[in-house]
């Protein structure tokens, strides 16, 4: 489990009142790696980014 995953999980856990999260894909160099990372965190691919509800 990488540091990035740990940090995103911590931010989500520390903000229980937030019901929808959005991560834009601006500047993503390797979309397949980013997609795997975001899916591992429970995000769903959307146009121009990923969303978690």
From TrEMBL:
Gene3D superfamilies: 3.40.630.30
Assigned keywords, A-Z: Transferase
Start and end residues of each PanZ acetyltransferase (GNAT) domain: 1-51
Top-level lineage group: Bacteria
UniProt-listed InterPro entries: PanZ_GNAT
Pfam families cross-referenced by the UniProt entry: PanZ
Molecular function (Gene Ontology), one example: transferase activity
Name of this protein: Putative acetyltransferase
């Amino acid at each position: 489990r990488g540091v990035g995953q740990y940090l995103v999980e911590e931010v989500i856990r520390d903000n229980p009142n937030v019901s929808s999260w959005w991560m834009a894909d601006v500047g993503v160099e390797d979309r397949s790696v980013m997609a795997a990372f975001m899916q591992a965190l429970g995000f769903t691919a959307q146009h121009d980014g990923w969303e978690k509800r």
